[in-house]
Amino acid sequence: METPDNATDAAAAADSATEAPTGIAAQDWATAAAEPTYRAAVVDLLGALAYGELAAFERLAEDAKLAPTLADKAELAKMASAEFHHFEQLTGRLAEIGAEPTEAMEPFVAALDGFHRQTAPSDWLEGLVKAYVGDSIASDFYREVAARLDSDTRELVLAVLDDTGHASFAVEKVRAAIEADPRVGGRLALWARRLMGEALSQSQRVVADRDALSTMLVGGVADGFDLAEVGRMFSRITEAHTKRMAALGLAA
Amino acid sequence: METPDNATDAAAAADSATEAPTGIAAQDWATAAAEPTYRAAVVDLLGALAYGELAAFERLAEDAKLAPTLADKAELAKMASAEFHHFEQLTGRLAEIGAEPTEAMEPFVAALDGFHRQTAPSDWLEGLVKAYVGDSIASDFYREVAARLDSDTRELVLAVLDDTGHASFAVEKVRAAIEADPRVGGRLALWARRLMGEALSQSQRVVADRDALSTMLVGGVADGFDLAEVGRMFSRITEAHTKRMAALGLAA
Predict the structure, then answer these.
(1) Taking chain B, what is the end-to-end CA distance rounded to the nearest angstrom?
(2) Which residues cross the membrane (chains A, B) (predicted)?
(3) Cα distance from B84 to chain A (closest Cα, Å)?
(4) Quick check: is B203 in a domain?
């Protein structure tokens, strides 16, 4: 779920928070969770992330069928399996803090299934671009949020966002395809824009529905976020997306 | 140990081989592989097993979509991930002995894809019965063959056949469904018969195509197998299938 060169801004945000943690970021889970709204927000976050991993597992396993060679198929199956292990870590953590994993995931099923239904890739390259774009955006977002979490939750969130190898695999394959046939680039650039639009629209749906999570994002409980800051966060994520697409040979 | 009399079932065959290994079963890989036909047969076997695991991964990931609950979906994803790790062990071993994993798997793609295409489950219960029947038959077969392999290959083959938890999960769910609606039993019994028929027909296709593997099975290189013994082996496997179906509440 990592991307090679995108995360400079997000990483900088995370770094500065790591250097001088204050408020919730300076607390461990036991201390921070004493505040029920914060606890609810973290259960939401872990539930969303867990179902995201399970949905990513399914998507990658499905895309493996489109693979042109056995080696490509094996590579996608490997990524799917890595997502599944993240899923296990996240549901394990939910159980550990006394939350029922299924209940925690349930509120995010509709949005994530909706996203995947609206953006079913029609071929192998669209699948690769989707894996790359989707994971990169998710990764940027969670890295931004991680900086505002208690130390224990932050550690888990950053661990499951570790590179599963999608990025370099997808980038290499997509670049080779564009080199072989430049017209492919135009089609995939349109596709990447559609993915970004659909991701934003589903995110808004989640933000509108989930009070605790949204409150945390706009600075109600976890410190450091206000509405202007949320706007800046979305700008950073969109900018990172644009840079990634350019690096891939696609105008975003 | 290769006298037919004491090979009453797969377990006995495997046990007696472990107790007093002779011929190839008493050798390690380095010694046994000096014979090129044996080496080719093992590459075939590992290739078939590896692609079987990759295909099982895909099938389980696909069936996860039919799961009635999030918990069931997670359970199937877990099994799929376990199959993938077996796939990694097998392709790792192929690479270790100097065989190209993709080339080793290629000859078995058509038969295994054909089996899965002919037996796409139409609902969640058919998927569970298929996972259970398919894995049990494959497991019986490989256990029979394992007794005739060199010690290093035998160890690997038995390790990847370890229970991934399919059996108890499937048995529990299928039993509960039949209890709730006994008519389900008749439908699933027919389905299990179709699976067995299709598995046998695809196995024959493989046996007819792959000289080295077939020669090993009928006693050309690895000792202990002759045509009559192969017949008995298929009887044992079919008998074990019948017992399993009865235990599941299905007349086979």
Answers:
(1) 32
(2) none
(3) 7
(4) yes
Chain B residues whose CB is inside 8 A of the A70 CB are: 51, 54, 102, 105-106, 109
- Alpha carbon distance A73, A61 (integer Å): 9
CA-nearest of A127, A110, A125, A148 to A230 is A148
How far A145 CA sits from the closest chain B CA (Å)?
A: 26
Domain that holds residue B199: 35-247
Provide the strand spans (E) within chain A: none
A19 in any annotated domain: no
Farthest-apart Cα atoms in chain A, separation:
57
In a domain, A192, yes or no: yes
Is A100 an interface residue toward B (CB < 8 Å)?
A: no
Residue B61, domain member (yes or no): yes
CB-nearest partner of B57 from A58, A77, A102? A77
CB contacts, 8 Å: B54 with chain A: 70, 73-74, 77
Number of Cβ pairs closer than 8 Å across A and B?
69
Each residue's pLDDT tens digit, B39-98? 999 999 999 999 999 999 998 898 888 899 999 999 999 989 989 999 999 999 999 999
* Per-residue tokens: B72: 């069931």
Other CB atoms within 10 Å distance of the CB of residue A120: 12
Q: Name chain B contacts of A105, Cβ cutoff 8 Å.
A: 70
Please state the domain count of chain B: 1
Mutate to test the interface with A, among B54, B63, B70, B113 (most CBs of A within 10 A): B70
Instruction: Spell B208-235 as b/e; 16+ CB within 10 A means b.
Output: eebebbbbbbbbbbbbbbeeebbebbee
pLDDT tens digits for B207-240? 777 877 777 766 654 444 466 777 777 788 888 8
* Nearest CB partner across the interface for A77, out of B54, B69, B77: B54
Mean pLDDT of the A152-168 span: 82
CA–CA gap between residue A199 and residue B24 (Å, rounded): 58
